[in-house]
Every structure is written in C-alpha cells, then in structure tokens.
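2024-03-11 09:14:02 DEBUG pipeline.ingest accepted 1 chain
2024-03-11 09:14:02 DEBUG pipeline.ingest length=367
2024-03-11 09:14:03 DEBUG pipeline.predict start
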Amino acid sequence: MGHSSFTSKLVLKDMLNEDRIGGLFRVILNILFVTFFIEGIGAYFIYMDIRGVLPGATTQDNIFFAIFHAVSAFCNAGISTLSGNMCDPIVAHNYNLHVWISLLIIFGGLGFPIVFNYLKLLRHFIVNTFMIAIGQQKHYIHTPRIINIHTYIVVISTLVLIVGGMFFYFLFEMNNTLADLPLKGKLADSLLGAVTPRTAGFTVANMDALRPVTLMLTLILMVIGAAPMSTGGGLKVTTVFVAIATALNVSREKEKVEVRKREISPATIRRAFATIVFYFIFASLAVWILSYTEEGTPVFTLTLEVVSALRTVGSSLNFTPMLSMAGKLIIICTMLIGRIGVLTFMVSFMREYKKRDYTYPQENILM
C-alpha cells in the first residue's frame, strides 16, 4: 500500500466500502482473517465427514483433503483431488460433504463487504447488550442503515437464486440423476447443483446426463454469477438486479430506480447495462468464432463452453478436450477476459473522456 497512488487508494476504498483511506490496511488484514477463519471451519467439518471414507488415506491425507477442498470451495475454484469431483463414487453419497462444500461456495460468493457489514451489525448488537446489562443504558439504541443497500441487494438476490435454483434443479432432475437417491441426497445434490454453476465448477453429476432444461438452468446461473468483491465471477447479482429493476421501472414509466427508500445512481445503472452489453457481445463473438473452428458441434455445447470460460466456472459437456488448437486459444482468451472483467477489459483500450462545459440538444429516437 505504501507505493500506491492516492487515486488507487480511493478506488480501493470504494471497492472495500471503507469510510477512511487510512483503514484500508486494517480491512485487508480483516479479509485475510475472515478467509482463513471460514476456510478453517469448513476444513474441520469436511475432515470430520471424510474420516474413514478415502481408501487407504492416512490422517495427514485426510487433513490435506479437507483443507484443499475447503479452500477450493470458498475460493470458488471447483478443483478436486478426486477424478470424478463430487460425483466420484467415493464421495457421491457423502451428502454432508456436499452441504459443507455448498455453504463454503455461498460464503465465498457473498463478498467481503457483506461479511463486514454483518460483523458491524453484530458488534453493534453486542455493545448495546453489554451496555444494557451493566446499566449504562436503558434500551437498545438502533443505528439506521448498518445494513446498506448493497448488502440488502446481494443477500436477497443470492437467496432467490439459491432457493429458486435448488427448487428447479430438484424438479427437473428428480426422475433423472436424482431418481435413485434418498430425500436427503436429493436435497443436498440439488443445493450443490444450484450453487456450483455460479462460478464454483464442482461436478455434482455428469453434465451429459442432465436434462436439457437443467442445462439451461445451469447456463442462466453461470451468467448471473456471484456478488462483487467476492471469490466468484459472473455478471454479478447486483448488475442483474439493477438491470431488472430498471427494466421494470421503464415498463411502469417510472424515471428513478429506488430500493428501500434509496435511489440507485444513474452512473450505476449505466455501468450495469454497459457490463451486460459488453458481456453478450464478447460471448456471442466467441461462440461465432468457435462455430467456425469447431464446425459440426451443437451451438448449445459451444455456448456452454464459452459462458463457462467467460464466467470462470469450469463446467463443460466434456467437450473441452476435443477442442481444436484454435478453439483452445479462443477459450484461453475468453477465460482471461472473464477473469479481468469484460468492462475493465474494454475500458483499458479506450481513451479517458474529457468533460465538456456544454451539452447538445436532446432528441428522441424510436425504440
């Protein structure tokens, strides 16, 4: 941080939702602490569930397995030491493991600002409770807006995606890949199947065995992704929320986008739509090029491959090994752009706009 410019610190301050520039170093330390704390708890529960499950594994092997998968899940990497990932015969019916992996993915995908926001609320509650207990104050003092709009949007959107995704995955696969599983297994695999497409990439079932309607659900969840400042990718739940809210307001002929008595800034709305437009341009262009280099391959297979790469998910219809050299280069470039961010990638090639002291007359066009 010592060599960062003042502008860079301001950008980081805004990203981390920190009130003071001087507190950025403390926030970064908090991020490291929260990361290791959550991964440590996850590793403990994973270890407790896989003891005696891995054939020929020693205690050290089990500890490594637990730590590796806790980090992989929280960081939304989706990498497993098992050849079949989470549908490997060794752990395919270890439903507790599937739940712990799902929870770690969810916590990683929420984003650190949300975690810090709720920690601030918890601290406020503890301080108030303590002050009442020692008689320093008579009643609980409410501090307005501890839970800010960003946290509200992320949590609500995440809950909708998890519950909705889990319900539809269960509905679509109950007589297919989930048919022979007990109810606990159906629920656990439905949860993991709804959570993992949002950039984690763990395999709960062979993608080729899923119904087309389930693959479409997976594709939609891939596109939306996780929250900003999280370990996940995607368009981000806030981007999609703002775009949908704006579209609904346009249909109602309402000019301002308001959430919980707060107005979403025009700059945020413009950024949301710019991100979506650039995303679909890049995705369409990549699919178009792949349809030439991988002629004869179904377009949906190519689309899933591109979206998975652009959103850094890692899921595939087992087509990645069959890509031509040109196709692999396209996917590599797509993953790189997806990791950087489509909007950030475009901005890096554009000159900074110089503000003018005048404006042109407005004119309406047909839509």
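2024-03-11 09:14:41 DEBUG pipeline.report The chain has a mean pLDDT of 87.
2024-03-11 09:14:41 DEBUG pipeline.predict end
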